[in-house]
Please model this.
Amino acid sequence: MQAKQAVVRYPEADSTNSLALELGRQGAAHGTVVVADRQTGGRGRAGRCFVSPPGGLYMSVILRPDLAFAHLRLVTLAAGVACSMVLEKHGIAPLLKWPNDLYCGRKKLGGILTETAPWSAAPPGVPFVVVGIGLNVNSLPADFPPPLRDLVTSLSEITHRCHDLDMLRREIVRQLDSLVAGLERNPETFFSLWRQRDFLLGKNISWQDENGLVVHGAGAGLRPDGRYRLRTPDGLIHPILAGVLKVHPGNQVEPGRS
Model:
């Protein structure tokens, strides 16, 4: 199903994801996009705040994909690949920090938050998915709160020019729709695209699980089920589905095999 990109615009919104979830419940079509010039209550993973100054691309896409429930977790990863592939055409090569961030060098370029409508075991299962995408495009580090200014970058800062937000939005939604449509038919192609852009591979990382346990090791790549792998110094592989992953200073290490 090809997204037609009906666009609902706001100069300011609390959260484009919240608005898109409501539109989805009201029956908004596959491919509907909610866009805001800025967000006052943008959300990240685990309820964190997503800072959204003017100049960024803040949008939420309503998708009604024909996917098995087990593949829904891959939609977030597909959104990262879609953003990366489009941005590569505009002069930069961002990498993907599992599960939902884009980085250039050691600085964050954007983030993704995917939310679903309540799931039912009876058809149609999940009626829709909302993919929230926030990218630092024409904003500059000075537009962010002081604690974040050394941690973020933008497309404009890297390329030294301004970019057309509507053009980027159209290109990303088209690419996302294509990738999600292919998840059932040819998942290996998608996994190859993601692995080529793996920010964590071989880096010294730590993982804190939902119970507060912290494990240190090396990023060891994406599993076929969408979970990430951490390899400890003794060779044990931890498959990660949830929790917090952090990158630590130090030389890259051999991620090993499992």
